[in-house]
């Protein structure tokens, strides 16, 4: 059984700036990894040492996992779209032969 607790953080201005900067770096890193993957570079074997970002290694590893997830979702959507297009073309051909 997992227990969770909600925590409210009251950040100072400096802490908020650090947190926002880290969030932007995280998003930028994931986008860069997705871009690399889409352009043909395999990110399946990437480790925190391969990622150049001003983030702790645990966050770099999370960036890699998130980028892989985004790429897999994209590839799944592309395969589904191709399948639907193929079915539509097949249906169109059979309708032409029936007429």
Contiguous helical run count: 2
What is the N-to-C order of secondary-structure elements (H for helix, E for strand)? HH
Distance between the termini: 62 Å
Category from helices, strands and their pairing: mainly alpha
Poorly predicted sequence stretches spanning 5 or more consecutive residues: none
Shape: elongated
What's the total count of β strands?
0
Overview of this structure, please?
Helix 1 packs across helix 2. The chain has 2 helices and no strands. With 99 residues, the protein is mainly alpha-helical. It is 69% helix and 0% strand.
List the helices and strands and how they pair.
Blueprint: H1 13-38, H2 57-98
Helix pairs in contact: 1-2
Quick structural gist:
By secondary structure, the chain is mostly helical.
Write out key terms for the chains shown:
mainly alpha, 99 residues, 69% helix
């Amino acid at each position: 059984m997992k227990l969770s607790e909600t925590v409210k953080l009251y950040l100072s201005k400096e802490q908020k700036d650090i947190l926002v900067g880290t969030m932007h770096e995280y998003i930028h890193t994931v986008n860069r990894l997705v871009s690399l993957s889409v352009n043909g570079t395999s990110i399946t074997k990437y480790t925190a040492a391969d990622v150049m970002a001003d983030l702790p290694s645990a966050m770099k590893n999370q960036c890699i996992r998130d980028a892989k997830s985004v790429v897999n979702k994209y590839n799944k959507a592309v395969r589904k779209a191709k399948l639907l297009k193929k079915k539509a073309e097949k249906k169109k051909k059979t309708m032409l032969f029936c007429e």
